[in-house]
Design brief:
The complex is a heterodimer of chains A (264) and B (375). Chain A has 264 residues and is an alpha/beta fold. Chain A has 2 domains: 153 residues, NADH:ubiquinone oxidoreductase-like, 20kDa subunit (Rossmann fold, 3-Layer(aba) Sandwich); 98 residues, no CATH class. Chain A has a 5-stranded parallel β-sheet, with helices on both faces. Chain A is globular and about 60 Å long. Chain B has 2 domains: 204 residues, no CATH class; 104 residues, no CATH class. Helix content of chain B is 31%, strand content 23%. Chain B contains 13 helices and 16 strands. In chain B, the strands form 4 sheets. An 8-stranded mixed β-sheet of chain B has the order 3-2-8-9-10-11-1-12. Chain B has a 4-stranded antiparallel β-sheet with strand order 7-6-14-13, with no helix packed on it. In chain B, helix 9 crosses helix 11. The chains are: A alpha/beta (264), B alpha+beta (375). At the A-B interface, helix 2, helix 6, helix 7, helix 8 and helix 10 of A face strand 5, helix 10 and strand 13 of B.
């Protein structure tokens, strides 16, 4: 059996490791996972490394250095299938805030010796550099979704990746709408489900880490959220958060910021 | 004076409010799980209750399109707060129900035995509009040609304590839909709350049996008049109206009207209206297969016609725009529902109005469409 097991490689790029940890947090299913696939490269889990090529590469993190551009191309060449894991890998993550600012100025403010740094002006998703077979969003990803995708590959079926918004998950688990009930700004109506509405169920608004759902109406949500802003500019900042570099949320934030300019 | 008699079916009696605890205890002794109004996350939800003290005493709501707030301290009644964030459908048509689990046995698939036993629910505080909604879902899930076993298993066990609405909210319009605020039938016990007592009408043999040994008095003429006045007042209070004249035709004859696009600009397609609606019944199935491929399960989960994946089929999505999905919802609810099930699919509970983040009001949209069409 072990000969026919597909090989799995897990890589990290610019990221916090949280999505890889979500795989390790699969505790109850980890042994079954190690039986179902041959974990050939996963430095966060084991030093033991088997040589590629690999059947499946899972890539966490965004591309933020020249070296990373070269490395992701090598990884793509050595992998039959490649999954971008987590919002850094799917839309640049929080470090993509630099895409809307001057990265050199950030570096100057944060580091005493920015001249030692090697970085690109932008943090970009994996799919901007190589072909990605499947994107799994989330900051962090939902570990159950990771498992479902691996299971779907092994069993040759379609993974359960919802195209609808977080609202449907809130309602299925009986969470009361925080937006209507407590005027808490929430991106749930335009954000892809898959997290099981974890933030609204804890009394917080969704901050859009699963990225835009399919065929959403960000214009209407902007109108709603602007009326309930607790600080000026809150809605634009919400769209320009974790998934802010995804084209739909980018457009939504730009529309607000441009509207503000016109208003002034 | 309290009597030792048992009230007859159809009779109306009063009980002291603390005696309601005896009704709850009796229900539990009889194997029921009482579910009633409770507060959670600053809203009214339906959840298990043990005693009358669990109910939200002295609480009301302010409800407007896209707006829901609790208010406290204006009265001391238990059942004055009108239905909240969710409906009873979560118990009869659960948001997730396991349909089956299979295990591979050599080359065969073996069905694993089901673990879940149906629960005997006692619904405490079902409003007239909600009772009408349950009857609509009965029509859907318990048709003569096909009966949904999950729904039926829960439904046939339910004990219903209905409640007459004496203080409807601003988003209510049950009088337009002919469903409330007065409960007419299909209950085991029907309750109207006055400041000092509960007025109960016995609706069934089960209700009668439950009242055995519980101290009651016959409702006096004064009490009955008082209840009548309160219900008449509630009807007059209901400002929101939905004009149902020519209703299926108004919508079905104008499916190409540009007004739908106007609604589509505001609609988020988030599905909230369909999920809080006590009659919406769309569902999807999801398969979950173990890593080793040896076990698989299928579950039924709530779905919505606002989900862009809902009408996706070979060739693409047949309702690819937000306005086409809103039109589908409204034209089903207030149009084709009638052809399908003989009634409209709306009971006037107002949840879709209150819980729409975009403040879309079905009564105003129908009125606006009517105006546009007649212009």
């Amino acid at each position: 059996m072990s000969h026919s097991r597909p090989t799995l490689a897990v890589y990290k790029f610019s990221s916090c490791d949280g999505c890889q940890l979500s795989i390790l947090n699969l505790e109850d299913e980890l042994l079954a996972l190690a039986e179902a696939v041959d974990i050939a490269y996963f430095l966060e889990a084991t030093r033991a490394v088997k040589e590629g090529p690999y059947d499946l590469a899972i890539v966490e993190g965004s591309i933020t250095t020249q070296h990373e551009i070269e490395r992701i191309k090598e990884i793509r060449q050595s992998a039959k299938k490649l999954i971008a894991l987590g919002t850094c890998a799917t839309s640049g993550g929080i470090q993509a805030l630099r895409n809307f600012a001057d990265a050199d100025r950030y570096a100057d403010v944060v580091y005493e010796h920015p001249e030692y740094l090697h970085y690109l002006k932008t943090a970009t998703p994996v799919a901007e550099h190589v072909h990605v077979d499947l994107e799994l969003w989330g900051c962090p990803v939902n570990k159950a979704q990771v498992l479902d995708v691996i299971s779907s590959l092994l069993n040759n079926r379609q993974p359960n990746l919802p195209p609808y918004s977080v609202c449907l998950e809130c309602k299925r688990r009986n969470t009361v709408c925080v937006l209507v009930d407590q005027a808490i700004p929430c991106l749930g109506p335009v954000t892809q489900a898959g997290c099981n509405a974890i933030c609204p169920s804890m009394g917080r608004g969704c901050y859009g880490c699963f990225g835009p759902a399919r065929e959403v109406n960000t214009n209407s949500l902007t109108t709603i959220l602007k009326k309930m802003e607790r600080q000026p500019g809150e809605t634009a900042r919400l769209f320009r958060g974790i998934s802010g570099y995804s084209p739909i949320f980018q457009d939504a934030a730009d529309a607000i910021l441009e509207g503000n300019k016109v208003a002034k | 004076m309290p009597t030792e008699r048992i009230p007859e079916i159809g009779s109306t009696v009063t009980i002291q409010k603390p005696a309601f605890n005896s009704i709850l205890s009796r229900l539990k002794e009889d194997g029921y799980l009482p579910i009633g109004p409770r507060l959670k996350d600053e809203a009214l939800v339906y959840a298990p209750i043990d005693k009358i003290e669990d109910l939200p005493q002295g609480v009301s709501t302010v409800q407007k399109p896209g707006y829901y707030r609790l208010t406290r301290g204006k009265h001391m009644r238990y059942f004055d707060i009108i239905p909240g964030a969710h409906s009873w459908k979560q118990f009869l048509f659960p948001s997730r129900a396991e349909l089956f689990k299979l295990q591979k046995n050599g080359r065969e698939w073996e069905r694993l035995p089901e673990k879940e036993e149906p629960v005997n629910y006692a619904f405490i505080g079902v409003r007239a509009c909600e009772l009408a909604a349950i009857q609509i879902q009965d029509n859907i899930f318990m048709r003569s040609d096909f009966t949904d076993p999950i729904y039926q298993a829960h439904r046939k066990r339910v004990f219903i304590v209905s409640v007459n609405c004496t203080h409807p909210s601003e988003t209510c319009f049950c009088t337009s839909m002919g469903t409330g605020p007065r409960v007419k039938d299909s209950y085991d016990l029907d309750l109207t709350e006055l400041d000092d007592v509960f007025v109960l009408t016995i609706g069934s043999e089960l209700g009668k049996r439950l009242m055995t040994g519980i101290p009651f008095e016959d409702a006096s003429g004064y009490i009955r008049t008082n209840v009548e006045h309160k219900l008449e007042h509630a009807e007059q209070q209901m400002r929101r109206k939905l004009d149902t004249t020519d209703l299926p035709e108004l919508i079905l004859n104008h499916l190409d009207h540009p007004y739908w696009n106007e609604i589509g600009k505001r609609c988020l397609s988030c599905a909230n209206c369909t999920q809080v609606c006590p009659t919406c019944f769309c569902w999807d199935t999801v398969d979950e297969i173990s890593l080793d491929g040896q076990t698989t399960g299928r579950a039924r989960v709530w779905d919505s016609c606002f989900n862009p994946g809902y009408s996706y089929q070979a060739g693409g999505n047949t309702r690819p725009t937000i306005y086409s999905r809103y039109r589908q919802w409204m034209s089903h609810k207030l149009g084709t529902w009638k052809q399908q099930y003989g009634t409209l699919g709306c009971v006037g509970c107002g949840r879709c109005i209150t819980w729409c983040p975009a403040e879309i009001d079905i009564t105003e949209e129908v009125a606006a469409l009517r105006n546009e069409v007649e212009r």
